[in-house]
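Throughout our pipeline, every protein is held as a single compact record rather than as scattered files. Nothing more is needed to write down the fold, since each code stands for a local backbone conformation. The record that follows is passed on verbatim for readers who wish to inspect the format.
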Amino acid sequence: MSRAETLVTGEIDAGYQKRTVSANEAKFETYGQTPDGAVVPGLQADIQSGSDTIHFEGKNIQENNQSYDLNYNHNYKVKVDASWDQTPHDYSNIAGTLYNESSPGVFTLPDQIQTTMTGSVLGSSTTNTRLASYWGAAHNANLQTQDNKGAVHLGFLAGEHTKFDFGISEDKIEGHKPMGATFGLSQPVQLPAPVDWKVYNMRAGSQYNTKDAQFGVNYLMSAFKNDIETMIWDNPLRLNPVNGTPGQGQMNLAPDNWSHTVSMDAGFNLPAKTRFTATGSMGIMHQNQTLLPYTSNPNVTVPGGLGLTSAGLTNAASLPEQSANARMLTWTQDYALSNRVVRPVTLGVHFHSYQLINRTSEITIPGQVIADSTWETDASTNTRFEYRKDLLEGSFDYQVIESLAFGVKYGTQWEGRTDREVRDTTEKILTVTTDFKPARWAILRGSYEHAHRRPQDYDSSQFIDDNRPEDSTGLRRFDVSDRLRNQGKIMWQLSPGSVSIGLHASLTHDNFQPGIGDLTGGATTFTLTSPNPPPATYSAVQQSQMYGLLEDRDASAGIDVGWDASDQLAFDAYYDYEQTKALQRSNQNDANSVPAGASPPAVQDAQTDWTFQELDKYHMAGISANIGARKDRITWKLGYDVVMSRGATNFLSVGSLANSGAVNGVRTFGSAISPPDTKYMKQDITMKTNVRMTDRATLVLGYTYEKYDVSDWQQQNIPYVAGTAVSQTNIFLGTNLQNYVAHIGSILVKYKF
């Protein structure tokens, strides 16, 4: 008996790369380094012996974004896939901080700074100038993370109709990322938050398939582990804590959690050309993180009658519960029935349901320590939010002639939720589609959707806190408000001969309306204990005006063109455009108040209204040329790509009593200055030459020019210490974006074996 011949083939790319870049900007290497020196961009090998095949592939060998895949296949009955991938994320190369991470998650400052700054006036020019002088010695914050992921997957074909799958993976993510912390609204602090995460996934499943029936079952487990669950940081303006001013701040980071999901799917061919399919899944999610104590400040004054002491506030044992005990259940169902008993017509009915069930423990606390500074007695209970969505729709598709078809779908979607101002919404959705194929090389597709979501109730008490308006009762949040949607899409594909053209466009217009419910919320009576003790009773009524998102328009269009001019010359070009425009209205103040019984009650002032528009535009374009045929000894590829974005916030109307906030201690009423537009642009020019030296070896010469331009007041010219103009002391990491120009040249050899 003869042995099967073993055949080994493969390819390796190796060479040298040189790069220069004008600025140390993280955007240049956000998700992977561009090496400078010897490189091995790719390696692959295939081994075939009889019915066994092995494939190995490596990319970016020895770089921080390298990846490896190993696949084994035995006669298409047994498949084993193993992979290892690295994915870096570089947030900033120039961020700086004076904080030192003395232990994982604990950020300290030199005692000398805290001692010197203790008693300083928050937000004063003297305070901020002195802190800025200290921060001049800031060290690099090392805002990078590295994700290392390993995975193994096994597939087994047990018979003609049955297969099994099993897979496991582990993600290990380490490093630091920017995160905001605070000692109150006037003293935010930006820190290099530690990342030490592990993510485990396991999947097992089986599938049974025949001509007329299919059935499958799957299990998925996902677990997240954070080895650093708490972050603590020093207050630069206080060494020893006192009531009203902490020496440290604390916060929880992402908690350990896990989930289990079991799903099943089935499909059956029924008589009379009818098909039935069903899927269902049930999941459970759980986390039980240990809760932080009320505060890390042992000197907070706490009123009597609560059974709490100042020292006890720093111990989690004083909490009603010491752990979160959060548990959520999900239940998803999907059923579809289709029929083609009359050949040109397809009828269908579809039902989908998703339910989120919350089994988290309810915990009531008597109050809180705001920013580790002062106690506030305000009993509160965590909200056990629950949600359900059901969709029932029917469809009619008609093949008019061979080249023309259209379809109509109509459905109703019901959504229910707890602990929201709107508990139930109903949405009617009508969709019309058409396909037109006038020739083998042409196709035109279009669709139009009209939908109207209507709230079925409105509870303005959700905006009342402590017996007084907490927010405008005219606020209509976009996810539950009355919404009228119109959406159109079109796609046209042409491929006559050597030319191919693709065009697409879409427009979505959402119009948000007040819907059900009194915008004023009715007259509200509330009691104030300060600043006018003894307690006084007041009343107020909100303005009859809708606030929040009023209108949203999303548009997109694009074209792709390909042209094979000859056997040795081909061109490709593309252009895509996206735009989103949102109109919003807000009010600067709650309703004024007058003593209860006064006539009429005070009304929220319309002159404190303001309206603004958010506008974002994106352009993506490129063109490339391929010169030379595969058989030619020398071929070239040239390309140019550009990505541009522009964002704008424009104030359209500002009430005469609305103000822009204090700037240098001065408030300006009746006007607001729109911030400068944000602009981003990235351009790439690439050139590549392939020179075939032998049947096995090819020399590849490459050059890339990359230019990045940014103008963003939110991401540039950010000092380490700021806030004097608005009486704040703000500490930042200085993650300022920079323009850069990069040149990358490479010489590689591709060798086939």
Helices lie at 111-117, 125-135.
